[in-house]
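Q: I have 107 residues here and want to know how they pack in 3D. Can you give me a structure?
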Amino acid sequence: MGKFVYGTPSISIEFDDRVLAHLKVVILAKVRRGESFTFSWEYSAAAGSGHSSIWIHPTIPLQFDFFGSKEPRLNRAWVEELARLSNTPAGLRVTPEPTESEAPSHP
């Protein structure tokens, strides 16, 4: 399990390294462009269920800590879906990983 660490004082949210790698690509792309957005996640039943949301802003410190030493192979379809969600009023949230063939078609 990797960790997404955000803010000062910081909060730390655990994600599977594969999920975290995909979130990192989307979050850093938006932050590099100076874009702010909402990021939401759900807690497991073991953690008490529920969900949280934060406002991601380019001036607030963030960190991605990975447990494993190997960088996961990225699924383009998933990156595109997460990026699309990050541009909606509801903001970025973790969705199930699609297969590569489920990539959205672009005209």
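Q: Anything worth noting?
A: The beta strands are 2-6, 11-15, 37-42, 51-56, 62-65, 92-93. The chain is about 25% helix and 25% strand.
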